[in-house]
Amino acid sequence: MRRSRGGTIVLTAAAVLAALAVFLPVWWVFVSSTRPGNSYVDNMAPLSWLAFVPVGGDLTNYSGLLSGPFLTGLFNSFLVAGLTIVFGLAIAVPAAYALATIDFPGRGVVFTFIVLVAMIPFDAIAIPLSSLFQDWHLSDSYAGLVLPALANGFAIFVLRQFFLGIPAELLEAAEVDGLGRIATLWRIVLPLSKPALIGAGMMLFLSQWQAYLWPLLIGTSPERQLAPIALANLSTLFTVDLGQIFAGSFVLTIIPMVLLLFFQKQYTESLSTTGLKG
Questions:
Q1: N- to C-terminal Cα distance for the chain?
Q2: Residue 259 has pLDDT above 70, yes or no
Q3: Residue 249 confidence (pLDDT)
Q4: Which of the following CATH numbers is that of domain 62-272: 3.40.367.20, 1.10.10.10, 1.10.3720.10, 3.30.420.40?
Q5: 0.70 exceeded by pTM
C-alpha cells in the first residue's frame, strides 16, 4: 500500500510538472500579447514574475490583429483544414477498410509502402512538387493548398488498425444478411469507428493548420493566404509589431489545443488501438 501510494504521488508530481512545462510558455505568450509593442521585454531582463501576470494589459493587439489580413488568413486556414478533413477521410476510410478486410495479393507490400512514404518529411519533396503544381496551374488556389495533404499515410494507418479490431464475426453476419462491402462499411463499421475517425481527422487538421512551407511555395495571393503566412507578414523590413505577433501566435496555438482537449477521449482511444494488430 505504501509503495503504491508513493508511486502515485511521484507519477502525479511528474504529470503536474509536465503540464506546467507545456502551459507556462503558452501563458507567457498570452500575457505578452496583452502588452503594447515591445514592452514585454521590461520584465525579461532580469526575468520577473510580472512577466507571467497580465497586469496593466489589454486586448488592443487582438483587435488590431483581427482587423487586418490575419482574419482572412484565419478563415482560409479553417476552410483549407476543413476541406482536407472531409476529402482526406473520403480517401483514407476506403483505403484503410480495403487494407484491413480484403485479402488481395500484395496487401502487406501496399501497406508497408504507405507507411514508409508517410515517414518521408513533406518538406523534402515540397520544392519539386511546387514546380509541378505551377505547371498544372494549381498555384494560388485552394485546390493547390488542399491536394498534397489528402493522402495522409498516418490517417490510413490509424483507421486500418482500428478496423482490424472490429470482430470478424460482425462483418460475417452483415455479409450473411446480404450487405455488400460498401453497405457494411457505411452501416456497420463507420458507426463503430467514431474515435478512429476523430483521430484521423485531427491528424489531417494538424497537418494543414501548422503548414508554412507549402503555402509559401505555392505562392498564394493575400486573398488565399493561410494564417501562419499572414502572421509572418506582420514582421517586415521596417516594422515588427511583436504585440500582434504574440497575439497571432497565441490564437494559432490555442485553437488546436482546445480541439484536442474537446476530443481528448476519442483521440486517445484511436491512438491506443494502433499497435494492437499488424
A1: 38
A2: yes
A3: 92
A4: 1.10.3720.10
A5: yes
